[in-house]
Design a protein that fits this description.
eight-stranded parallel beta sheet; 4 helices
């Protein structure tokens, strides 16, 4: 479970990074995490500190050297975002099928800071993802966007929390799951608003697209509101592949797998569009298309 993974990573971490960006500095960084060999587990612990008014784009890539690297990777990251600082974080997980991935992350946002977190999950046999955004001071804005592209018998278990502790803050979560074969997803999200967090604006949306009868999506959105002057919405939808769209593409001479790929790319384009890097966008689209070959 996530609690065990947290304690094990805290105790046995053997890799990771510490990143501090000074006040008013702008940086773009890429960090690669590599899945270990089958039968091995890697524990990574990371700390990211943005001083006041710093601006950072952080790209994290989780991959395997080849398809035989099917170990476990547990990644624990704490982000501290200073006053007026801005973080854009992009995570791409494309580890080998057969591997296990645990990603536990905590964002602390201070006055007038902002985080845009974009996560793309394609690999690993079993993934557990926990993302928590803590809006600690007024004016903070936390945006969390993610998609899953699952196939075979992959399992993606995603837990999120938008915790509003201060007034005049906003948060937005959009999670999309694209599932074929016997893939399965679990989404459990919580918007938590403390009594002091008046004038909160929080959104949470989970959308699922099932491409087969065997695919399964479970959604558990939640609200815990202790303030009375707030605007909070949450919702979840699950749909099957639109047969009319599929028929239209097939009638134009496009084979079924390519047609499903095109419809699927359209479904997750809203997430991919949050990334401001054309090369990275094309790379992610290619990875998704590979799931249909």
């Amino acid at each position: 479970g996530a609690t065990e993974s947290f304690h094990l990573t805290n105790t046995y971490f053997n890799n990771g990074f510490f990143l501090r960006v000074p006040e008013n500095q702008k940086q773009t960084l890429r960090i690669d995490h590599t899945c270990p060999a089958k039968g091995q587990v890697a524990f990574h612990k990371n700390y990211v500190l943005l001083d006041d008014l710093a601006e950072v784009t952080l790209i994290e890539n989780f991959d395997s050297k080849n398809n035989t690297f099917q170990g476990g990777l547990s990644n624990l990251t704490h982000f501290k975002i200073g006053k007026g600082a801005k973080l854009t974080r992009i995570l791409i997980q494309n580890m080998a099928i057969g591997s296990t991935f645990h990603n536990l992350e905590n964002f602390d946002l201070h006055k007038d800071s902002s985080v845009v977190n974009v996560e793309c999950f394609l690999g690993s046999e079993q993934s557990r993802i926990e993302t928590k955004g803590n809006l600690l001071e007024s004016g903070a804005n936390f945006e969390n966007f993610s998609f899953v592209s699952g196939r075979s018998r992959q399992l993606f278990d995603q837990r999120t929390e938008q915790h509003h502790l201060a007034p005049h803050c906003s948060s937005n979560l959009l999670s999309k799951n694209l599932l074929q074969d016997e893939a399965k997803s679990i989404f459990a999200g919580m918007i938590k608003v403390d009594p002091a967090a008046q004038q909160t604006n929080a959104l949470q949306t989970n959308r699922n697209l099932l491409l087969s009868k065997e695919a399964e999506a479970n959604s558990l959105p939640g609200l815990e509101i202790l303030a009375n002057d707030v605007r909070c919405t949450h919702g979840a939808t699950t749909s099957r592949l639109d047969q009319e769209e599929l028929f239209y593409l097939l009638s134009r001479g496009i084979d079924k797998k390519s047609a499903e790929s095109l419809i699927s790319l359209g479904f997750i384009e809203e997430i991919i569009a949050k990334i401001n890097d054309e090369n990275l966008i094309q790379n992610i689209r290619d990875l998704v298309c590979n799931h249909f070959r």
